[in-house]
Amino acid sequence: MKNAAAHMPKILARIKKQGCVLMLDFDGVLSSIVRTPHRASFSSRTRRLLARCAAHMPVAIITGRPLADIMRRVGLQGLVYAGSHGFEWKINGHAERRRVSAHAAADFRAARRTLLACATGFRGTLAEEKRHCLAVHYRGLSRAGELRFRRAAHAAMAPFAGAIRVIDNLCTFEIMPSAEWTKGDCARLIWRGFCNGAVPVPIYIGDSLTDEDAFLALKKGITIRVGRNIESAARYFFKTRAEVNAFLAALTRGLYATR
Question: Which is a Pfam family this sequence falls into (predicted)?
């Protein structure tokens, strides 16, 4: 991985030449990670920067949060929003969702019931229901409690191997149908929607395991992970979330407008 801040002149020169479609995760990228999802803050400065970017280029937020939640939380018009790890999205006021087969939906419902039952045995966990996804946040547990919960949750999901995708990352244990649809597929769909003759460079900024799908799907684009991880498929990294705001500010200085 390369340090994005150190390569910023090269990154901005490419954006100036080709234009871009800016796509970002929310938690850990635009907002700090917090113990409970509903307490996530979205600073007025970040909101202003994002609004300025949207005046010059297509901007999309692709998050694990439910679509209604992220739209309400961000509250900016003119953005593309995608929730539930890309299973639902809204573009130009038109909402769509990725459908799963009846069999996959049945497997997910069974796994969901099992995981919820498992989580009830651990005081301090918080379940978050989404479309075709269930997240159990365990940041409220002690270190020993985290280990016990993770062992129990993985064991509970073992019978659903192959049918259910498990993401255990950033103190969140999440399940979804093991369908061939990820944040990467959603990001590519959004980007291609703006490829009208010209081919703008896709930019994707994320910090979690599910964002790795987008990094892989957009290999030729500008992919940036918040937090260095040598195992990441991202081309660049930002050391901190503050560098995300610095990047957004650079995009709003007028030289990099794309529409």
Answer: Trehalose_PPase
